[in-house]
Amino acid sequence: MDPHLNDLKQLNSLDPARGREPTAVEWTRSRAMLERVISGRAPQPSPSRPVRRRLVVGVAVAAAGAVAAVTVPSLLPGTAEKAFASWTAAPGSLTGEQVLPQARACAGNGRGGPSTAGPADVLLAEQRGLATLLIMKKDSGVIDLCLSAGPGSDDQLASMSLADGPLPAPPADTVTLETMASVGEGDGRWSDIVGLAGTGVTRVDVRPDGGKSFQASVRNGWWAAWWPGPEGGEADTLTVTVHTATGTTDHRVVDLD
Amino acid sequence: MSEPDAGARAERFRRLHAETYPDLLRFVERRVFDGDSEDIVSTVFLTAWRRFDDLPDDARPWLFAVARKTMANRTRGLLRRRALDVRLTAQPRDEGTDDTLRVGARIDLASAWRSLRPADREVLALVAFDGLTGEQAATTLGCRRSTFAMRLGRARQRLQAALADSAHVHDGKEQPSWIRT
């Protein structure tokens, strides 16, 4: 550290882990884990746990303006199985008008202030079997991701704030990763992934390690997909393929900004 | 891979673990509250083993970057544009240590720290707590070194401004709750 950075030096006195050393037990556990990894006996990394998982159905979520708060997606028991069973690797593209009921339900979820919704507010909408995923901007400028199993407000399954306003577009032939997570337990676990797409991006595919590739939706500068499986909660088990007019490029998800 | 090669690779990985485990554990514990730190560190080493051939010579920032993403995945629904916040020590240090910062100044510093945005706290913590160089911190955040330098400079300016405000508010007086008895 630069010796002249006295403010940073002083900050060090507030370090919550100052002087913290692993205990003998922690060393033993960690070394045992390491040997399991080396021998190939390590389990898959744990998926993200729904720490603050909360259904948004019928719930006035958080305070107006608390745009950064996340309502972690969740699927209702039973509905999850139906959504999984009907899931398709290729999404159907939907217009704003086609998903207007879902968009209005999404707009009324109480996050980012009260909001109405028109077709032009829908930035991206896709259908995979039973489930509709949409990204929309709300009156307050907040951009939300919503997943629903039907047109009514009771059909809304999950929602998440993506941004508190427009985000800068990435370079033409590139994508960013804005959010990725997995939710659920056991066989009911599912994942979602969302990012920004440059103007030159024509298609994005996602491939879990050891699994089959599926197509994400790309529209209005966003790309998004959801799928049954835990990979969205793992650090590095996905490959994202970006298609442009000039070719394709593969990215490990851990390398995406 | 031949058996001797595999053995040498495993030995290098064990060495990496021995050299970086304490730092990685501290890095994670500065940022999580719920006792998940060992699990997160395990995930980082599992990822490192899978990508062992891609690891740079200076692996620590690379490991921190994976840890950061793993924590974001678990605790925040992974909003990547949000900073991963860093917590602060709960109690002032004992005055008998080599820490010569007086209690009042420490209160002001803690107050100023809490007034900063998470993004500012994160860049400051990478240097002040995690002990990274600008280049290592940039690797951890996945940005250019010049970008990190700019962000650090601005964060320090805001810290100084917050400290000035804090000093004005407290007028040099110590808050009773922080005085040791």
From TrEMBL, chain A:
The chain crosses the membrane at residues 55-76. Residues 1-23 are annotated as: Disordered. The keyword Transmembrane helix applies. It comes from the Bacteria. Keywords: Membrane, Transmembrane, Transmembrane helix. This is Uncharacterized protein. The lineage of its organism: Bacteria, Bacillati, Actinomycetota, Actinomycetes, Micromonosporales.
Automatic annotation (TrEMBL), chain B:
The keyword Transcription applies. This is RNA polymerase sigma-70 factor (ECF subfamily). Belongs to the sigma-70 factor family. ECF subfamily. Keywords: Sigma factor, Transcription, Transcription regulation. Residues 111-159 form the RNA polymerase sigma factor 70 region 4 type domain. PANTHER family: RNA POLYMERASE ECF-TYPE SIGMA FACTO (PTHR43133), RNA POLYMERASE SIGMA FACTOR RFAY-RELATED (PTHR43133:SF25). Residues 19-77 form the RNA polymerase sigma-70 region domain. InterPro entries: RNA_pol_sigma-70-like, RNA_pol_sigma-70_dom, RNA_pol_sigma70_r2, RNA_pol_sigma70_r4_t2, RNA_pol_sigma_r2, RNA_pol_sigma_r3/r4-like, WH-like_DNA-bd_sf. It comes from Pseudosporangium ferrugineum. It comes from the Bacteria. GO terms for molecular function: DNA binding; sigma factor activity. One of its GO terms (biological process) is DNA-templated transcription initiation. The keyword Transcription applies.
